[in-house]
Amino acid sequence: MTGRRRTRSTFLPGLLTRHARKGVLSAGTAVACASLLAGCGVVPGTTGDAGADTITVMTWAPQSTKATNKPGMPAFAQAYARWINAQGGINGRKLNVLTCNDHNDSVAAAKCARRAAKENVVAVVGSYSQYADSFFPSLEGAGIPYIGGYGATNAEFTSPLSYPVNGGQPALLAGLGSALAECGPVALIRPDTIAGDQLPPLLDSGLKAGGHRASHDQRAAEDATEYDGQAERALRTTSTDRADQGCVVPALGDRNGTFMDSFRRAREDYPEVRTATVLGSVDQTVIDATGGASGPYEGSYITGWYPVASDPRWDGMKRVIREQAFGDNRIDPADAGVQTTWIAYTVFRQVVESLGDGEVSADTVAEALDDGLKVTTGGLTPTLRWRFQDKLAAVGFPRLVNANVTLQVVREGRLVSARKGFVDTTRTLENTDVTY
């Protein structure tokens, strides 16, 4: 990681209210329009020869990088567009999905956002990026709503143009900390990045709620090819007392598998410890690939945002995959990114339907959401509704409206529910110290 870490900033709650955007163009918007040479009078939601009855959105995610990759998100977005268009579109309008690779890079993330503005998309839907500081300025300057981001950054829970569908890393780690309160020493292995800096206080909030001391924070390179030293250190930290079994929590995204390879080799020389992590770092395919019931994840607690992949509430998403993306191995129905994209497009569809025969533009989409539209997701989340100041505004997350997580466990090599229903982490997060 290069460069200085910056303290997390928050937005003033009405900084970009609908009324402000209706009245005047900001200086940033004027500059963006001039630099892009994209006529700001073009009918929103259209691109090229798409036609006036076409709604254009964008989905972005990193692909083919050395760190975290989420190719299933844009792939599923395109499959969703094929599926919805085969049914006549949304309110008779064709859905056009543009995709962009953010390359896990701040410059590329900014380019994706500038392209979204140039193409006059009405929303960015179901996307992943760690570089919110790079992409939000362009989206905010153009008034483009960001619906259903992955929750990888705090800015997704502060920007007035962000409409998250889950509680992101804050909820996952707070919920996991609560589940691990009975562990001995806890070691968190996380990326040495700005996004990684946000993780320790969130895990510690859950540990503290259960009367546990703070975790041992271990920074690690996000794109390392081995973690032998990190695994040894984590084991030394968590096995100091044989009578008090410790817990190792890797939160390295796609590099979790690399860490666990090192961990599995090193653990033979140490007392037994337990592993735990968050969904998105581990899914069923990872568990299978690392040995199933005989692998390092057996008995691990894993927190997720949604019900397990075998839950019948996912049948609608699986139907889209079966009908429009069968055989596309980029799309895994158990992947939290794919699941988030499905929910984000479920939200977007209801927003467009609420507009009836009226104009569908970035402004009208955001206005519908800001005016209190309630969105249901078939039980995959609570009913969603976004306000500028919600319960968690006091701790810097004014846009976090769904703090629910599910607690899952690996039993006999299968990821199953460890507890019925959702766990609401709102109270835990209210007591979180998120000042960096």
Which labels suit this protein?
436 residues, alpha/beta, 8-stranded mixed beta sheet, 3-stranded parallel beta sheet, 14% strand
Backbone structural class: alpha/beta
Taking all Cα atoms into account, the compactness measure Rg is 21 Å
- What is the total tally of β strands? 13
Low-confidence stretches: 1-50
- Biggest sheet statistics: 8 strands, mixed
Q: How is this structure best described in words?
A:
α3 packs parallel to α13 and α4 runs parallel beside α5. The N terminus is likely disordered. Strands 6, 7, 8, 9, 10, 11, 12 and 13 form an 8-stranded mixed sheet that branches. This protein has 15 helices and 13 strands.
Give a brief description:
The protein contains 15 helices and 13 strands.
Q: What's the layout of helices and strands?
A:
Elements: H1 18-23, H2 27-36, E1 54-61, H3 72-86, E2 94-101, H4 106-118, E3 124-125, H5 132-142, E4 146-147, E5 162-163, H6 168-179, E6 186-191, H7 194-197, H8 199-209, E7 216-220, H9 228-238, E8 247-250, H10 256-266, E9 274-278, H11 284-289, E10 301-304, H12 315-324, H13 336-354, H14 362-370, E11 404-411, E12 414-417, E13 423-424, H15 426-430
Parallel strand pairs: 1-2, 3-4, 4-5, 6-7, 6-8, 8-9, 9-10
Antiparallel strand pairs: 10-11, 11-12, 11-13
